[in-house]
Structures are given as C-alpha cells and as structure tokens.
Amino acid sequence: MRVRWLVAGLLSGACALPAWALDFSEAFRLAKDYDARVKISASRAAQDAAGVDVARSRLLPQVSASAARGKQHTRTSYLSGSYPSRTDEPDTKNWALQLRQGIYRPAEWRSWERAQSLAQASAKGVEAETASLLSRVAQAYLALLEARTQLKVAEQDVARYTEVLRQAQRAFETGQGTRIEIEEAQARLDAAQASVVDWQGQIETGRQDLAALIGQEVNPEDLTPFTEVRGLAREVLQEPLSSWVDRMVLQNPELASLKAQLDAAQKQVAVQKAGHLPTVDVVAMRRFSQSDTETTIGEEYLSTMASVQVSIPIYSGGGVNASVRAALAELDEAQARFDGRRRELVTATTNAYSRVRFGLERVSALDQATRSAEQALVATRKGVQAGTRNNVDVLNAEQDLAKMQMQWVSAAFELLGSIVELWAATGEVDQALQRLEAVQRQGAGKPGLPG
C-alpha cells in the first residue's frame, strides 16, 4: 500500500507545491496572449468589423465639395473679320457643393448584409481558435504532467529493483540464492533505468511543447496536479450523448463561423443578381462660377439643382450572369464545408463522449487491478519467507505492479483529456477553465487518487 499511495500522492500533489505554481488556467492565459493563431483571427475579426462600417457608408449620404481659383488668358479672333481680335485675362472662380443619397441600391444593401455575416463569421472564428487553443494547451499540459508522474513511478521501480537485486546478491553469497535470480533482477533493473531515461526524454519534449505555446520557459515541477478526475467524468456522463451533440451543434464556434460564412455566400449571390437591377439616387447641387470658361468671361453664375437619377443596366457582356454562376458555386462550396464539418464534429463529440464513458470504467478497473497487484506482491514476499516462492516470483510481481501503475496513470490523464475535448467541442471554454481551476485548487497539497 505504501507504493500505491506514493503514486497517488504524485498524481494529486502530496509533495509540497512550489512557490510559483503554473496551474492550467494560468498556462491557458499565457498561451492566449502569445498564440499567433488567436492573434491572427482577432485581427481578421477587426478587419471584417471595419468592413461592416465601410459597406454601411455606401448607403449613407455622400457629400462632396470642390473649389478653384485662377487666372485665365484668352485670345479671341473672329473669322469673319468684322471685329478685331482681343485678349482677355480674367480672374476665374468656381465652387460646387453636392449631396448624393441612394434611394434604391440593391447591390449595396446586400453587400452590407454580407459584410455583417462575414464579421459574425470572423468573431466566431476567434472563439473557435480559443477553443482549439484550449485543446492544444490541455494536450501539452497533461502530457508533461503525465510524463512527470510516470517518471516518478519509474524512479520508484528503479529503487525497488535495486533493493531486489541487493537481496538476490546477498542470498547468493550466503548460498540461499542462484545466479539466475541475480541476472533476472539485473535485467529488470536495467529495463527500469531505461524507462527512466525514456520518460526524462518525454519530459523534455513536453516541456518544449508547452513552452512553445505559452511563450516562456517551463519547469515541470511548477505544474499543478489534478484530482477528482473520476468526479469530473461522472459530471459529464450525467448528461446523455444526445444532449452533448445538441449543445455542440448549437454552441460550437467553428460550426457557427461556417454557418455565418454560408449566410455570407447566400448574400453574395443576391449581390451579383442585383447587377441586373436599376439604381436610383437623389442628387442636390449648388454651384458658383465666375469667368471659368471662354464663353462666360465677365459673367457670374450661382445655380442650385435637385434631381433624381436613374441608372438602368442593359448589357454588360454577360459579366453579371457569370458572376452569379460563380457566386452560386461558392454557395455550394460553403454548404458542403458546413455539412462536412458538422458531421465530423458530431463524430468527434460522440467519440470523445465514448472515451469518457469507457475511460471512467478503465480507470476504475485499473485502480482495482493496482490494488490486486499490491496484494499479490505482499503475498509473494511472504511466500519467499515461507520458502514457497523465490526472488524471480517477486520480480514478476513487482513488474506486474509497475505495469498496472503506469497504465493507471496513463488512463487517468487520457480520461481528463477526453473531458477537456468535450468542453472544447461545445465552446465552453470559460466553464472548462473554472472547473479545472477548482479541481486543481482542491488537490493542492492534498494526497489522493487521480480519480
């Protein structure tokens, strides 16, 4: 039991926490501030939000003004010869103020609606990247935490096999053991030491992966462990699969972004079809001119004009029809992308839910298997003392226990990863962070099982 509780303590934080602990929420916050994909999506969302204002501006009144002042040199000759030629050098002035308001511009209206759909798609795209980041940070964080835990388990295996080897050597020296027992113990010790090296390499890889996400160096010992993994799994399984799938369809930000892109593609078809329709504008102008042309030298005009201008497209070389066909093809593509991704997400959610369901059962089964392996090891050691077992049997029992412990640790972290994957699929990033933070806070400095 001492070995089992040591592993449990490593999983749930029996060792004293460092002065600065990197919990999952803090790692995610650092990654969100550092991640290029999130920044790119946020910039794109800002661009598309500005695009809505640009499209809206085309529907508002357009006011323009112009003015000019100069000197004109004009020489006038009469071809009939009845009048002598003359030269004029008047000062010229003119200004104009114009107001134009669109009354009927179907293409501009549809373009504004399309810009709104694109802005919504980009905003949801930011949420989708954030949910994706949650999964990526969870994968790196849990992988490093698992490697750290597995390394502690492997180091305990080395300590146990070292003690078994020492006992085998002492028994051989007193004539109570055999060379085979020493070689068996040495082989198990070598394998355990190789496992330690392997997990040390995985810790270094995991440390680099997490550091690349959060933008700063990571000390594996700073990571805050988790507890209550099985409690989280039971909370997830309180809702049926159909409920999780429905929530995913309604809340998944990537799917919402694709839906908004589909709406934008539909609006684009309307924009192109509007190329066949007329446009109507109201135009008001006030204009002043003084000697600004050859025929108005010495004359001054101040005029005010108001009109309704109608533009009717008649023929554009087939360009409008071609644009409509292109927009329809784009609409089909957007529909296929939405349908395909929706099916993929339904499958991914279903698989994640199944992994949580069977992962919970597997963790519980491995917990019991670990207990049984501990009892078998105790019984084998007693058998050695009674003369019914030998050191090879102890080595086999030690190996079985080590195998169960490592599988138990791996299954616990896989279960937690599947839970995070479900939260990410439904876009519940804030809820996931709050729940994981609460679990880590409960387990800080407190021994217990990973479940």
- Provide the domain count: 1
CATH H-level superfamily title? Outer membrane efflux proteins (OEP)
Spatial gap, N to C terminus: 17 Å
Structural class: alpha+beta
**Sheet with the most strands, sense and barrel status:** 4 strands, antiparallel
| Outline | elongated
Tally of helical segments? 11
Assembly classification:
single chain
- The total beta strand count reads 6
**In percent, how much strand structure appears in the residues?**
5-15%
Average predicted local confidence, pLDDT: 87
Output the strand order for the largest sheet: 1-4-5-6
Question: What does this entry look like structurally?
Answer:
This protein is an alpha+beta fold and 451 residues long. It has one domain: Outer membrane efflux proteins (OEP) (Up-down Bundle), CATH 1.20.1600. Helix content is 68%, strand content 12%. It contains eleven helices and six strands. The strands form two sheets. A four-stranded antiparallel beta sheet has the order 1-4-5-6, with no helix packed on it. A two-stranded antiparallel sheet has the order 2-3. Helix 4 packs antiparallel against helix 5 (179-214) and helix 4 (106-173) packs antiparallel against helix 8. The chain is elongated and about 150 Å long. The two termini are 17 Å apart. Mean pLDDT is 87; it is low at 1-19 and 446-451.
